[in-house]
Structures are given as structure tokens and as C-alpha cells.
Amino acid sequence: MKTLDKDIVDYALSYARGKKVEYAEASASNTKHEEFVIKNGVLDAFASTVDSGFYVRILADGGLGFASTNKWTKDEAESIVNMAYKSAKAAKRKDKINFTEEKSVKTRWSVEQKTKIEDVPPEKKIDELMEVDKTLASQDIKIPGRILFCSINLIEKYFVNSEGSTISSFVPKLGAYAFITVVENGKPEQASKQFGRSGGWEAFDEWKMTDALLHEAKVLQRLAKEGKAVKPGNMDLVCGTEVTGIACHESCGHPMEADRILGREMSQAGRSFIYQGGPYWMGTRIGNDVVTIVDDPTVKNSYGYYEYDDEGIKAGRRYLYKNGVINEFLHNRETAAKLGTVSNGSSRSVNYSREAIVRMANTFLLPGDWIEEEIIEDVKHGIYMKSFMEWNIDDRRFNQRYVGREAYAIENGELTYPVARPVIETTTENWWSAVDAISKKVNYDAATCGKGDPMQLAPVYTGGPVIRLKGVYVK
Amino acid sequence: MSEVLAKTEAIVKKGKALGADEVIAKTTFGRYRQTRFSENQIDITVAWNDYVTDVALTWKKRLVATEIRNFQNAESIMEQLFKLAKVSKENPTYGGIAKGKFKYPKPTADKKLQELENPSDYVLEAIEASKKEAGKDVNAGGILFTKYEDIYLASSEGPIGQDARSAVELSIRAFSQIDASGHGVECSSALKDFKPSRAGEKAGEIAKMAKNPKQGEEGRYDIIFDPLFFTSMLGTWGFMASAFSVMIQQSVFTDKLGQKVASDVVTLRDKPAQYAVSNRVFDDEGFPAQENIIINKGVLKTYLHNTSTAKIFKTKTTGNAGLIQPTPWNIEMDPGDMSKDELFSQIKHGLYLTNNWYTRFQNYATGDFSTIPRDGIFLIKNGEIRESYKDLRLSDNILRLLNQIAGISKERQHIYWWGLDYGPALSPYVLAKDIQMTRPK
Predict the structure, then answer these.
(1) What is the DSSP letter of A315?
(2) What's the pTM?
(3) Contact A275 B178 (CB under 8 A)
(4) Three-state DSSP string of chain B
């Protein structure tokens, strides 16, 4: 029995086209999934699943309907088409939904694996993660809480629409997550670290998880022993690439999602500080002119990698903030039509049971011309916040806070002692306006972006170079 | 026995025949419907059907799991699963799954929620109610969600049974201005007593009061938490009460059993009650879901367990399996003896926080965290709401917050919505004293 039956997907589309629709698409996914978790040195469980199904989305009478199933029969295909069509008609919208006109495409794309994940036996996968835990546990550092999680998704998709597009794709995604607690003199300190890549099992070696987590453990131990609080005040804040990346994601990527800007997420993920008729819009300055932040799904082997989005639109680099100015929103076909432009391929669905919505892929600050060491040497009094633990941002994506994990005081251009949990709590505009130095090298971190109702957790990269914020308030 | 239960049991028998020590299978036929709306109009209606059997088996303390989505493939999938168990690693701490035959109460799911007729009517009722409160220019968005699940569970260790679980949830956020909003939620396991207008009125009422907000001031405040806000705190304490959270150090309750962890007025229980959107008759091991008191008058009484974690902690399961991670079903905070208005009258200078999101921790073990209020934030002076604020953040410690609770209302509301990191709760209005609020600079 086929797990992804293209004939049934094609049948669903042709059945939908037999109705009075303005647009219809049918899309299927088949995901082979494995996950396993090692808790304090023991394998808790290993799960292996295959999940396949398909959906139809219909635009009729200016309303949208979506229905999905994991039952692969023609009767079921008819049933979900009927359901989606009925829902679309029942919307009875005053403002009719339109989609932009886009080129149809017939293509097939995939991500290569150097070491095919399917060829790596489960016991080897377990052993490799177990080895990470063993090394951590064998150190002269007390780490009473260790949880390591590995997740594998081999995602096959098939997309057809009423405009003639047919796209097949295959993406293997490998992810891992670790959370550790170090206790020193009875004082717990914690760190989490995520890893992710599109590609084969070779990623596991490339991540150097053991080194990364050992580094975190040593940092936490030293922090517990020697960490001093910050004397609050205005100072220069140098941010490591992990901190730059989260700020790009939260205070640039999210507010530039056009569905937020237009209000479609108003009740859940929220709106944006950017809105029609408001103080910020396309062309408004939001940061220093050295700041250019892009979202780019085509970064090779990135966690957020794709070549065509889930509406069949070719993906490319989007310049969100360009030279400090609000430049380009993230669009799907619906939001682009509302704002009189074309889609830039930002529509993603995490599986067959979820509608595609506007999402980021890999969001990062473009490099500058500073050498990292020179940025620090140029600071008289400040903090180097290399990584973060607590963070959050309001639902307009303006008021945000980052709390340092690995952080050091800078005095006269030198890193001195570890700083315990320095806090910056500021606005999007103040943050990006304060950036006065950007290093040459971009680093990426894997992350999982949450959006949509029901929640859709999308793999992304956040990233950027080391940056300096001049004269900001740190506490 | 129903045909589906028989097929579910056949999967268990297949696993045993292969040589597994324990096998448990749970089949879910789920029908889920959601209508999303924004700008007072319906954006999309989404329907998804899910047919799945979750299977776990153990062999020599190796726990493996899979999903079967077509009974025709069951035999071959079980064979693959057993092979996986053989190459997996032993978990020396594994303590088994529930054993024995149990009697379950008759499920009370509402069949009307299998397929709601005219869901848009409920949405429009909520929108109209918000307009009635906040004026015709109010801009509202949200969701209406319905769930109906038929559940069939069989275990090699004895449990066998059926459940049916239903839920209806309406969440509406109303904007009276671009920076003035209110949020209302209406949740139930049955359509009876489900009143969308109640959520719309609440959203509209807060949105109206929230107009023309001023920049809030940093400082320490006595705070009244709306049930919508406080549900997220109850969910966090529920998560931290899970034995799994304790074992991975993501809990402020580690090594505190029998100790005072909250003020005397605080009693928290986990109760998969009939009214709750998470209502169930058994947990994922087939053990009867039950009420557990987590904190009694400020004292931590128990962690939440499955059979395996209970064995590690030398106690009995609390009926909260998750096979890996015990999970709270529905946290209830016991009511206090004051009305909501009496609670407000206790405040000389404080805040009323109506909703929040984005709760994040610096350190789960110590409890240092912050969370962002959203929708109406109000200054209270001498018991009365005086001004609308914006741009504040609650930045404190979640264990300290438990100890700062000084008043609890009689009124309680069952809450579940998108912004929660954890499950539903039954929450009162809560007064907590001397809580740190911060703001961006």
C-alpha cells in the first residue's frame, strides 16, 4: 500500500475543480518520524512513526475552506473537498479574499544526504546521543539534570493546484535539543541548546554536540562560582551571534509577517507595531543604517530550508529591514493580494492537517566589516552577552527582554569576570538604532518557531554576526 | 465489544505473540473543526479528521512506540516495532505500566460536538456581544474550535475500555483601538451552558476600559490576576508538579514534598472533571483518571505520576500517564471566600492584569521568570480601576508568587486558549502582593 498516493491527491483536486471554485489546491505529506530521549543517562523511549495524509484548500465566493484526512480513499477525498467547499461558501465575507496571480510551476526538488538517515540503524543513533551524555556525566562538574532529545523527520510532499502547478519534494530534517542543570555549591544554573539541519546524519558530527554542551556546562559552573550581578546603567552591550539571532527573529521577522500586519493573527500571535496608517510602515527607519536583516529559505542545509513554499511559490531571499529601513514584508498569496504586491514565497504548513500560513525560514542580520575582537577592544565599559536563557516580546513585537546566560563584563577592551544574568529590556527601535558595529562572520542557530492556531512548530534558523549596541541600559 | 476495540486489542495480542513483555494500544478517531476569524469576518474554516492507534511496547525494559493509521498495516508495523525494541537500550529505571482491570465511569461526551451546525453563528454571537460592550467599531478576532474523539484502549496488563472526549472552545480578542484590547474565552466539554456571548462581552468590556493606555511605571505592585492570566500560572505549577519535570530539574518543587511551598490560602488540585475540555476517564496507561491534591493549604502533597515514575519515587501512580511524561489534566485552584469585587476592594495601589503570554524562565529550578501582560492592564487605586496602562512585564519568581497569594475569589472560570504553554485550568481571580513589574528603557 502506498503511503503517499498521488492519484488520490490528483483526484481530490479534479473533484474540487468540478465545483464553482476560484482556486483549489490539494497537498499531501508523508513524514517518517523518529524521536528518542535520553534522560539522566537512560534511554526513556524510542518512537518511530509514519504519518501521511492530504488536504484540500478551496477559495470560493471569496471565502476559504480547508479540510484534511489521513484516510487514503477517493470517498474520503470527496468528503474533505465537500467539507472545504461548504466552509468556504459559508464564510459569507464582505471583503472577498483574493490570491495574487502567480506563475504555475512543475518541478521536483530535494535535499541531498551525505549519510542517509534511513541507512543509520536506530542503535547507532542511540549510541551516538548516549555518548554525548556519557561524556557530560563523566566530567568533574555536577550535572544532575541532563535531557537530550533527538528528532528526525523525512518529509515527502506532493502539491497540485487548479492553476496547473505540480511540485514534489523531499526534505530530511535532523534536530536535537539538550537541557542541562549544573549545580555548584548548591546553586543550580541551567542552559538549553538546540541543533538542527536539513540533510543527512552527517549533521550529527558537524554539530559537535559534546563540545558545545561541555562548554555550556563549564560556563554554568563558572557562573555559579564567580558570577557577579551587573551594576545597572547605560553601557555598551556586545551581543553574541545567538543573541543577535533571537533579536532578528523576534523583533524583525515576526513583525514583518504580513498576516499579522493585516490582523489575521490578532487573537493569537498578535498584531505588529507595523500597521496601515501607523507610525511605522514601508520606508520608515527602524534602525541604524548598518542594519540589514534578511529572511532566506535557500540557505543550503539550513533547518528552515525550502525551494518552493506550500503555495507553490519559488523561495528567495527577502530583505526585511534594509539599511535600517522597513523594506519588505513576508507574504503569502492572500496577504500579497491585499497589499498590492506578489507573494515572496513565505507560506509554510508543518503537515497535511494544517493550513499554510505566513512564516519565517532563516532570519539573520547580514555581516558588517568589524573583527569580533576589535568590537570588544573598542568598549571601555560594557557587557558581552554571548548567549541568552530567558527572553520574551510583546505581541506587537516591540517591547522585548533578553537575559544573558554566558556573559562577561568588559573593562577597557578586556573581558573580565562572568556576569550573572544581565538583562536588557528595550524596544525594537531602540535595539536596532543602537547597533553601531557588526562583525564579519554570520553564525546560525536552530530554533523552533511557534505560530498558528492550532499551533504549528516550524524549524527555522536564527542568526547573525556579533553586534554592539552603543550606550543601552543594562540591569 | 466494539469492532474498533477488538482491533485495538488484536494489536496488543500481536505484540504479545511477538514476545513483548507489555503492550498498550490506544485508538483515537478524532474529528476537529475550527473557524478562524479576524477583523469581524471569518477567515477560514478548517476541518481535520485523524484516525490513529498509538502503540507502545516493552521488551526487557526497552520502551518503544509507534502509530498505526490503518489497521491493515498493523501486523507489519508491530513486527517492525518489536525489532526496534530488540535493538533499543534498556532503561533500568523503567517501572512498568498499570496492571489490573478497572471500572471506568461512562463517558459524557456531547455528541452535538461531532459536527456543529452553523459554527459561524457562534462566532457572530461573540462578535456582536463584544460590539455591544465596546461599540460598533470594535475589531474582533479569534477562533471557535470543536473536538470529538472516540477512544479505545487495550493493554496486555489488564486495562481495557472506551472513552469519548468532546470540547468546544471560543476565544475572542476585541480591539477598541490599535493598542487597547480585551480577551474573552468560553470553554466547555459540552454545548449545554456554552455561551459565546459571555466571552464576547468580557473581551468588549476590557477593550472599552483599556482605551487610551498610558505607559505603565516600573515598580512593585499588589496585583489582581484575571482567571485568563492566572490559568497560565496554574498550568506552569501543574507542569512543575509532574515527576518528569522534577527529574529533569525543570521544577521549583524538587525535594519539597511535605514542605510549605505556597501561602496558606492556596490549594491546587488536578481534576479531569466532567466540565473540562480535557475530561477523560482513564490516562494513557488505562489507569482511571482521578483527582489529586497537589498543594493543600500551602503544603506540597504529591507529584503527578505514571506507574513508572511512581516506582522511582516509591509511591503509587496518580493516573497522570503520559508513558514518558506524567501530565496534569486540569488544574483547579480552590475558591476563596471573597467576591471579585471584595478582592478589588483590598487594593490601595495595584494593578489588574487581564491576560498574558510568553512566560519564559531564566532558571526553572529557582523559578526566576518573566511573562508579558497583554490586553487590558489597569491601575487600581482604593479598590477602583483608574487608568489603563501598557508596556509592562511581570518579572519575578514563580515560587515567590505562590507565596505572595493573599486573596482568592469565589468566582472561578474554566479556561483554555492558544496562548497557554500548558493545559486548561479552573481559575479564580487572585490577589498577590508585592510583585515586581518592569518596563523597557
Answers:
(1) P
(2) 0.97
(3) yes
(4) CCHHHHHHHHHHHHHHHHCCCEEEEEEEEEEEEEEEEECCEEEEEEEEEEEEEEEEEEECCEEEEEEECCHHHHHHHHHHHHHHHHHCCCCCCCCCCCCCCCCCCCCCCCHHHCCCCCHHHHHHHHHHHHHHHHCCCCEEEEEEEEEEEEEEEEECCCCEEEEEEEEEEEEEEEEEECCEEEEEEEEECCCCCCCHHHHHHHHHHHHHHCCCCEECCCEEEEEEECHHHHHHHHHHHHHHHEHHHHHCCCCCCCCCCCCECCCCCCCEEECCCCCCCCCCCECCCCCECCCEEEEECCEECCCECCHHHHHHCCCCCCCCCCCCCCCCCCEEECCCCECHHHHHHCCCEEEEEEEEEEEEEEECCCCEEEEEEEEEEEEEECCEEEEEEECCEEEEEHHHHHHCEEEEEEEEEEECCCCCCCCCEEEEEEEEEEEEEECCC
CA of B337, closest CA in chain A: separation in Å?
33
d(CA A10, CA B377): 51
> Are the C-beta atoms of residues A145 and A180 closer than 8 Å to each other?
yes
Integer Cα distance of A115 and A150 in angstroms: 17
- Give me the residues of B, 59-98, that contact A with CB < 8 A: 62-67, 69-70, 72-73, 80-81, 84, 87-93
Residue with cell string 505581541: A395
Q: Per-10-residue mean pLDDT for chain A, 475 residues long?
A: 87 98 98 97 96 97 96 96 95 94 97 97 97 96 96 98 98 98 96 98 97 98 97 98 98 98 96 97 98 98 98 98 98 98 98 97 98 97 98 97 98 97 98 98 98 96 98 98
| Cβ within 8 Å, pair A45-B56 | yes
Strand partners, B245: none
Q: How far apart are CA A405 and CA A77, in angstroms?
A: 51
Q: Do B441 and A473 touch (CB under 8 A)?
A: yes
SS3 A117: helix
pLDDT at site B1: 67
> Burial letters for A43-78: b for 16+ Cβ neighbours within 10 Å, e otherwise?
bbbbbbbbbbbbbbbbbbbbbbbbbbbbbbeeebbe
Per-residue pLDDT tens digits for B95-124: 999 999 999 999 999 999 998 888 899 999
